[in-house]
Amino acid sequence: MTPRPCTDGTFQHLSVDLDDAASGKTGLTLCSAPGRPVWGSDQWAINTAYDMHLSDTCVDIAALPQCVACLRVAELLAEPGTAPPLHRRTPRPDFASGFTGAEIRGVLRTDIATGAPLGRRAAVHLLTFTAVPDQPGFGDLVGILDLVWDMGDTVRMGQVTDWAAVVGFAAAADVPDRDRQMIAVAASLAGGPPVGLEAAVSFVDDPAAARRVIEAIAIAAGHGDRWELTERPAPSAHT
Question: What is the pTM for the complete model shown?
Fold first, then answer.
């Protein structure tokens, strides 16, 4: 955590980091202007670093004085598009609209890594296997959340907001029937519309899909990290 000079050369901005050059951390410049876009976790990060003896400086962000540039930023905040980037954080999107399929899969998996319930883990295991996240408009069904993680770092993750809507989206999307079946099972595992398992998982000719469903059921049962599936060659027609 390193104090840095403000735009007028005085000590009126603060960079929230541990000033660790080896890790490449650059910190975050905070402005003391009224209405500044500062996350609630910023003061917490300062306090935590101080309490853990990682810094000998503990600063109250709200008590930082204002310089001319800071006051100008306060005026510019009425027109957010014109505020200098130094004084602004990029706002968190509410939904994954505009995200690529790979980015959607990434934020969904981050949610799993940070402790999602078993049913949601199993559902995401199926959803990310399908082509549904790649379809235009799917990001509107994935909410974006920021989780304060270790040492005040923020982890960005995504969660499906309505599994029933995902089932409807998949039904109308240009995806294989296999994907629609897997989405139906995923929604059921996540607490959405229930499905008859026998009819929904008839993947006799698709070993990869069948394996994914079996893995999802193991995850939902709390054994996803204990079992490993071993595929055997299909029996010959002459045996």
Answer: 0.65
* pLDDT average, residue stretch 84-112: 81
* Cα–Cα distance measured from residue 53 to residue 84, given in angstroms and rounded to the nearest whole number: 33
What single-letter DSSP state applies at residue 35?
T
**Widest CA span of the chain, in angstroms?**
86
Per the prediction, the chain carries an average pLDDT of 76
Rounded-to-integer distance, Cα 179 and Cα 187, Å: 12
Q: How far apart are CA 194 and CA 185, in angstroms?
A: 8
pLDDT by residue (tens digit) across 139-161?
999 999 988 776 556 788 999 99
pLDDT of 10 > 50? The answer is no
**Distance between CA atoms of 9 and 223, rounded to whole angstroms?**
58
Beta strands in the chain (DSSP E): 2-4, 13-15, 29-30, 142-148, 154-160
Whether 148 maps to a domain, the answer reads: yes
Of 33, 61, 87, the last residue of a domain is 87
- What count of residues does the chain have? 239
In which band, very low, low, confident or very high, does the pLDDT at 21 lie, cut at 50, 70 and 90?
Answer: very low
> For residue 105, is it within any domain?
yes
Mean pLDDT for 178-203 is: 88
In the numeric block, which tokens belong to residue 53?
């003896």
Domain range for residue 214?
101-220
| Same-domain check for residues 174 and 74 | no
HEC-encoded secondary structure of 93-134: CCECCCCCHHHHHHHHHHHHHCCCCHHHHHHHHHHCCCCHHH
Average pLDDT over residues 187-198: 89
Q: Indicate if 62 and 124 belong to the same structural domain.
A: no
